[in-house]
Design brief:
Elements: E1 2-4, H1 8-19, E2 24-26, E3 33-37, H2 41-51, E4 60-62, H3 69-72, H4 78-87, E5 92-97, H5 104-107, E6 112-116, H6 121-130, E7 134-135, H7 150-156, E8 163-165, E9 177-180, E10 187-190, H8 196-203, E11 231-235, E12 269-273, H9 276-283, E13 290-293, H10 300-316, E14 321-325, H11 333-343
């Protein structure tokens, strides 16, 4: 594995490496991605092998210009074009009907493909220099915390990849929003870095399907995902100071004192809260060895960008138990809560 900076010479090397069938970790505005030529099935197979990712979980194809859609999709519905004109490049992935040339290994055998146009200039240059389109899931072992720095990738994947391009910390910090544009009424399959409100402002009605069985249509739909090694419990804020009295995210009613008692843990615990004022309140409980704050001033964008980095920090510190707060369910808060829920003990 070679770590590279983002000089133009290295971006050209990275693009050439992808074209040659190598695995290149690329920075995006969401998280770092493990990139391979989307039209090279052998290279894509190495992505699944490096991540130990199950073959039924499809990958997102990244493009460097809008015209690349023609290489991937058989059609581009009017509402999809509206979203592309308003929100691309950006943290939005669209599910579109795929062309037969797209290998089945990329789409897990589905007749649709997930496509994204990243805004990060380093990602776009690497894709452009590769001369192809790039299949790139998050650059982490399957099911583990997503990486938001090159160092996260080096620590968890190391020599399973050929090159890591260091483009600095990711600005958004959670994966892209995934929306299925093949339906009569588009449906968000995964909340992410593009707020639902912005999408609805552009195309109107958007569905949020309930959780159900069946084939996985996009990345990030598994019930358990993005998890640290520590056991993570997710709570509404009004129950977090009472974390030792319950461990189910849905167990607390309006009266937290009604929550059942559980055995006290001898392991040092950490907590994750939304802002500094809540950290001060929680500190008074004396229950936690460390309290991680997503955003000192309660800014949802900062909270999203810090989420995975904070989980990496707490995991590296050796905490066995983490109690986390559900943040307000608005804007990027939906994506934060989704990632915390999937990382939590059910």
């Amino acid at each position: 594995m070679e770590m590279m900076d983002s000089s133009d010479e290295n971006l050209r090397r990275a693009g050439a490496a992808i074209a040659a069938g190598k695995l290149v970790v690329i920075p995006t505005e969401t998280v770092y991605g493990l990139g391979a030529d989307a039209f090279n099935p052998d290279a894509v197979a190495r992505v699944f092998e490096a991540k130990r990712r199950p073959a039924f979980d499809p990958l997102i194809i990244h493009i460097s210009k809008l015209d690349d859609i023609e290489r991937i999709a058989t059609s581009f519905p009017p509402k999809a074009r509206l979203l592309a004109e308003a929100l691309w490049p950006g943290p939005l992935t669209m599910i579109l009907p795929k062309r037969p040339e797209v290998p089945d290994i990329v789409t897990s055998g589905l007749d649709t493909a997930a496509v994204r146009f990243p805004v990060h200039p380093v990602a776009r240059k690497i894709i452009e220099y590769s001369g192809t389109v790039v299949a790139a899931p998050s650059a982490n072992p399957f099911g583990y915390i997503s990486p938001t720095t090159a160092q996260h990738v080096a620590k968890t994947l190391g020599d399973r990849v050929d090159f890591i391009v260091d483009g600095g910390p990711c600005a958004v910090g959670v994966e892209s929003t995934v929306i299925d544009m093949t339906r009569d009424i588009p449906a968000v399959l995964r909340p992410g870095g593009m707020p639902l409100e912005r999408i609805r402002d552009i195309i109107g009605e958007v569905l949020i399907p309930g959780k159900k069985g069946g084939p996985i249509a996009s990345p990030g739909q598994l019930k358990s995902h993005y998890a640290p090694h520590a056991t993570l419990y997710l709570h509404p804020w009004n129950s977090l100071p009472y974390a030792l009295r319950q461990t189910s995210p849905d167990a607390v009613a309006a009266d937290p004192s009604a929550a059942p008692e559980v055995a006290l843990s001898a392991a040092p615990m950490a907590a994750i809260v939304f802002d500094a004022s809540r950290a001060s309140i929680l500190a008074e409980s004396g229950l936690f060895r460390r309290i991680g704050v997503l955003s000192e001033r309660g800014d949802m964008r900062e909270a999203a960008s810090r989420l995975f980095a904070l989980l990496h920090e707490l995991d590296a510190a050796g905490f066995e138990i983490i109690h986390a707060e559900r943040v307000p369910e608005e804007g990027l808060g939906r994506a934060i809560n989704d990632r915390l829920y999937r990382a939590s003990k059910k």
